[in-house]
Amino acid sequence: MDQNSPPENIDKVEPSVDASVSAAPLISKKDKFVKEAKSFVIIILSVLAFRSVLFEPFKIPSGSMIPTLLIGDFILVNKFSYGFKVPFSDWFTDPVYVTGPAAPERGDVIVFKYPKDTNLNYIKRVIGLPGDTIEVIDKVVYVNNKPIETKDIDGKEILDDMDERYKSYQFRFMETKTGTATHTTQVDMGNDYFANYYKFTVPKDNYFVMGDNRDFSADSRRWGTVPFGHIKGKAIFVWFSLSVPWPWSEDEQESWKFRPWRIGKIIH
Prior knowledge:
The chain is an alpha+beta fold and about 270 residues long. The protein has helices at about 15-20, 30-55, 155-160, 220-225; strands at about 55-60, 75-80, 110-115, 120-130, 135, 140-145, 145, 150, 170-180, 180-190, 195-200, 205-210, 225, 230-245, 255-260.
């Protein structure tokens, strides 16, 4: 071969990288939609499972737990305080527990399904455990024939922060010890409606609950006890606080109130 002649294979080329890429199968619009839909469903189920067994946020719509919780407080509830549940099991019936369950303690602030309508969520404080006797005499709560420990306190700061609808009442404020929880309760000295409650024995697997705003709380004194299976979890802290005067609000005195100082408040 002449040294000056070109190689015989000069015109032969190897497939380029681009050529191999272009040869890969394209994903159809249908397959792409199915893939994205699956990812979306997985995300939604993960969020719902998180809310079902770990933590769930709630907004306080009423004043039954004043001064512990104010209208417009956004709280976080620990859903595994009394044991880990099978995800979504409490959507259809009483929850199925993987661990535990452990019983609530006296003084716990709990969120539960309202026994008269399980589509509604209520929040109250546990006063009576199964087997306890509960009685109210002249606004003093007795548990097993002993009065709950209280001490009068100055409520000026509480009144300043309170929702407008409650500021005209004759409140008496008390530092109260319910179980191991030390918290504040209030009673309206101008209202005798809830002054007394007959002695009552709490049934097995049930809990007697009351609001800290004693005279403005529809609780076990009116509609009975809370079965353990209705309890969703224990309220642990306030993560936001904003009262908004919605157009459909029944309270004409309601006003905008942003309370940044309540953010991070631990619920006792």
